[in-house]
Amino acid sequence: MTMIVDSNGIETGDFLRVRGPLELKCILDSTDVTLVRKAISRTFENLRYHVNSESCVLRVQDSPVIIWPNKGVHVTPREITTSTMCEELHKWIQTDEQEMAGKRSAKKKGKKSSVARVISLNLMMEVTKPGPLPAPILCKTIQKSHFLSTTLPMDCVVNIRSADTIKDAFEGLLEALTHQLHEMERVMLCHMKGTTLSVPEPFHFLLPESRGLVTAVYPAGVPDSQLEPQRKELHERFELPEDRPYFRRANAYHFPNELYKDGYLRNPHLALTHPTLDDGKVYLVHGLYSYHHYMQDRMDDNGWGCAYRSLQTICSWFQQQGYVERPVPTHKEIQQALVDVGDKQGSFVGSRQWIGSFEVHAVLNQLLGVTSKISFVSQGSEMASKGRELANHFLSEGTPVMIGGGVLAHTILGVAWSETSGQIRFLILDPHYTGAEDLQVITDKGWCGWKGPEFWDQTAYYNMCLPQRPKAI
Amino acid sequence: MGRGYIVDDTVEVYLSKLCEQQSDHVTGLVIGQNSIQRDFVVMACRTPSREEPLVGAGKSPDKEWISEHARQVSRMLPGGLSVIGVFVISDADAKETLASLRQLVFAVQRLISSESLWKADDNEVTDCVTLHINPKSRKISCRTFDIKDPKSLAKPADWKYQAAVCSSWSTMSCCVKVDLLVPLPDNKACTKSMDECLKEGLKVWTYQIENAVCLIDGIQLPDDAELTAGQKRNVRQVLTAQLLVTPVRYKHAVFTPTDVVQRCGGALSVRGAIHSRAYVHNNKPKAKLAEKILKKDVVSTMVTRVQMLLDELLAPEDESKGVGTDKPGTGTSPHLWPHLLCLIINPLHRRTSLYSPPPQKRNK
């Protein structure tokens, strides 16, 4: 019941996610590498001790529920016991969860239960103890040394199954916390240069085919480009193809209770019902993209910017799949790139001139280093015969396709195609939408929707730009 | 409407005695607990006289001396009680003494708050009481000043005696484990003193305590829940508090995340436990108030304790430099502490004189 289909079409259960900073503080008496490593390891050992002590407290956000996992899993309020089903915690959470989940699929009641629920917890420490304890003493050490002080951004997730009790779940969570501290220690020591240290940061990644979440710890400040050996190891360990990224920071799983701060809608097509064709199959864009359309970013491009927006949607895909770190280019940056490659005159920058599939191809190459195939039809009616080509594109590349030409530009996100009957439907994302980011309107009014072959201007010519996925991890 | 002070009748007895002694111009402190609804006074205590009276001071109160007395008394008070005002017994007309009482109450609060790391929130009462008593007519003139507002004018307030005001106040107690590690500057780079370093460390610590989740008898009560709901009003309740903290990074912390490792010239560590006990009035107190009173006491106990420890640590240095003359009010001499510490006062359980030993005995 609590399973969801996430953005990749993968089912996951509920999550129990604990986050909270832990202070890592110690004096490094010496700059001798072995001694520094020892001091750091000792400090981590001490943190693990604290996390496994009675002081460790987990607090369920927006609820009065507090759990001491090491006091025989002691819980307050009393109505909850260690054998309570973990799912029942939801009853205690007074939130706008409905609001959060509902923002996108508000009135569609059926949708609500399909959103994976996340029980968020804060990692805290109880500083009070049953007394009496000795009064404090002050110690002063005068010695030239180094002071290590940072906070570790702990972030652990466990999947809860419907049969899990509070006890099961929190024991699992505690194990995860301990393990994460080990990982952080390893990463910190591994990336230590002299006395320069990086803060270890955890990231969660969803493995394809319902294989659950994996957490990787990366050193802050070290770019993805320098972490390829680590990713390679992860790809090998989880037997993942070595031609596409799964573990770059941009691939990190976005939990359903987190809103995207940039305001763009992600994968609006997931709210649609796919067409059923006899003997047909649905081929879709892989991964995540954001919906770019007219009038966004305080840019009035109504009437001329549709291809720019389609290009932005494609760029957002490359960024969110982790291929590029570059943010989605603005209209001006797109125009400048075309001037830089010699495709346009300098006066083009700042103008309101249209661009087409060839320009999209050139900009992708110039700004993202991505090559594209161009596919041509001299009449819209021929689009009906592009089933196999598009199906193959979504199978092997999975990138959004820009289509333009004699008339308006659109983005193709998928195709439903029957090899036997030749029947075809196109999943279209329309950049001409000028309204607010309202999923309901966008899907109801067909700004994102499945279209038949009659959608294309039967007499106009079309060019498709099919971006190719670089081979990289 | 002005504030209303509910005053324990032992205070009346005490003040009457002072009036009978006929010594003109007696000043002292008013001790109690403020709450939004009503204020409670549980004790008054006279300022000890200086051994060598100030020359030419005349009849105006000795602000510096009284403030220092207030500061030392504040340090010793159990949680929930604080110096909430001053009194003067004087033949002079109440109106005439008002200006000097105003100055006095501001001076007292300024010195007390200068030591405190506690940040007053909007709900905190910032009115302080001044009391003028004519020793002959026994006429009482009670006025309050908002000490957060330097321009505040005197407001009349109600001063009413009642028996056994605090006999059934609840007590909340806890024992907080402390483990503080503060780096000392590498001398070349920085000239910050140990005192400043420790203060910065304490600020971070205080911030954590202020933002801690507080459980009362194991339960997190809603802010506006009544602390003693369902209990008999005249039964003294003994509650245990628990504090849960998140090690949040204080916004003015010394280090930013990019500077994980810093050079330092050493470190100070404070380890042990702070015992805190706070008293909460019994007039339908809210859980939020109880929590605030307890946290405030935890913080002030810690600050006072650390100051004492630091004074002790610095003592030999000071002496060799010849610091620590007979100027009162520096409060940094450790010799003072044994005297003060032997005075375990608790006005709620036991009436003990607050005005011994006089501060200047510390150098003997």
From TrEMBL, chain A:
MF-aspect GO terms: deUFMylase activity
The record places domain UFSP2 second at 41-260
Q: Which GO terms describe its cellular component?
A: endoplasmic reticulum; nucleus
| UniProt keyword list | Hydrolase, Protease, Thiol protease, Ubl conjugation pathway
Entry annotated with the keyword Protease: yes
Q: Which GO terms describe its biological process?
A: proteolysis
* Pfam families cross-referenced by the UniProt entry: Peptidase_C78, UfSP2_N
Q: Which InterPro entries match?
A: UFSP1/2_DUB_cat, UFSP2-like_2nd
Q: Where is the UFSP1/2/DUB catalytic domain?
A: 281-465
The family classification in the record reads:
Belongs to the peptidase C78 family.
What protein does this entry describe?
Ufm1-specific protease 2
**Source organism:** Hippocampus comes
UniProtKB/TrEMBL annotation, chain B:
The record's listing under InterPro entries reads: ODR-4-like
Q: Which domain of life is it from?
A: Eukaryota
Q: Which UniProt keywords apply?
A: Membrane, Transmembrane, Transmembrane helix
Q: Does the keyword Kinase apply?
A: no
Principal location: membrane
| Summary of the function given for this chain in its UniProt record | May play a role in the trafficking of a subset of G-protein coupled receptors.
What is the official name of this protein in its record? Protein odr-4 homolog
